[in-house]
Amino acid sequence: MKNSYIIGDIHGCYNTLLKLVDKLPKDAKLIFVGDLCDKGNFSKEVISFVKDNNHLAVKGNHEVLMRTHIEKAMAGEDGQWNSSDIFGGNKTVRSYENSVDVLKEHLDWIDKLPIYIEIENYFITHGYGLPYYQRKDEKKYERAILSNRVDVDKYRDDWEDVSAYKMVNIFGHSAFDEVKKGTNYIGIDTGCVYSRKLTALNLGTGETLDEAVDGQDIG
User: Tell me, what's the pLDDT at 115?
Assistant: First the structure.
């Protein structure tokens, strides 16, 4: 546990990721909370790093968007994902230009990503997944686990009462200025792609390490 680090949303910020990893032990076990792609400049490189090094990761909502839209986008079809800065898929498309074989490998890998990972009493998801813990294996709640936010009421009427849960939910998706800790959750997306920083959480000690965004990743 003391050698395991959970890393927040990277969104194609490859240089920032490498600098953060350099601060960690060489044999650290890395676990990613999804949203490896979109918005930043180096989605292909980030996914290659996680995939080729056999690091653990859960699926994020942007992996779903990428999987759904990128093949049409690479064929020249326009859509909201690759034409709107809100989703940032245009930068993902550019990162895979002349790399169709790599893209196919990455899409196969994305298809196999889990929606959650459990390690002892930690429940690792992309969105705030704890209110769906009892239903985590039901397909119809997958979107909610990917997209739920701790401070937004969008799905609140459908939440389970989590007050008695012994699990601690570690998630990304919602970008905070600093790591956000509640009674039974930790939000670790600190807005790397929004010119802030990328954070790694030590699963054993609860300590965090940060790296300010590298300008090459978002320029």
Answer: 98
Segment 110-160, tens digit of pLDDT:
999 999 999 999 999 999 999 999 999 999 999 999 999 998 877 788 999
Q: Are 82 and 90 in contact (CB under 8 A)?
A: yes
pLDDT at 110: 98
Q: Are 70 and 20 in contact (CB under 8 A)?
A: no
pTM beyond 0.90: the answer is: yes
Dist. CA 40–CA 52, nearest whole Å: 20
- Whole domain around residue 33: which residue ranges? 4-218
Domain count, the chain: 1
**Residue pLDDT, tens place only, 151-191:** 887 778 899 999 999 999 999 999 999 999 999 999 999 99
CATH number of domain containing 38: 3.60.21.10
Q: Which strands sit side by side in the sheet containing 29-32, from one edge to the other?
A: 56-57, 29-32, 4-7, 197-202, 208-212
